[in-house]
Specification:
This protein is an all-alpha fold and about 70 residues long. It contains 2 helices and no strands.
Length: about 70
């Protein structure tokens, strides 16, 4: 017997929090899209954050030009 409540999605707790009210088969897709957006934002950064790719490039430049 399953411990999952009938109105609870089987992936609850494993998806992005923004999908908590989505009880259909699209919830995992929405969660993936949100995760990809977060990753893209982290890589590129914004006006106040250099982003991961820029930070790694900066570290590489400092270590190769000692």
């Amino acid at each position: 017997m399953s411990d999952i409540h009938p109105t609870q999605h089987p992936l609850d707790g494993k998806l992005e929090p923004e999908t908590k009210d989505c009880f259909d088969d699209r919830a995992p897709l929405y969660s993936i899209a949100i995760s990809l957006k977060r990753i893209a934002d982290a890589l590129d950064g914004n006006s106040t954050d250099a982003g991961i790719k820029h930070a790694v490039w900066d570290i590489a430049q400092r270590t190769t030009h000692l």
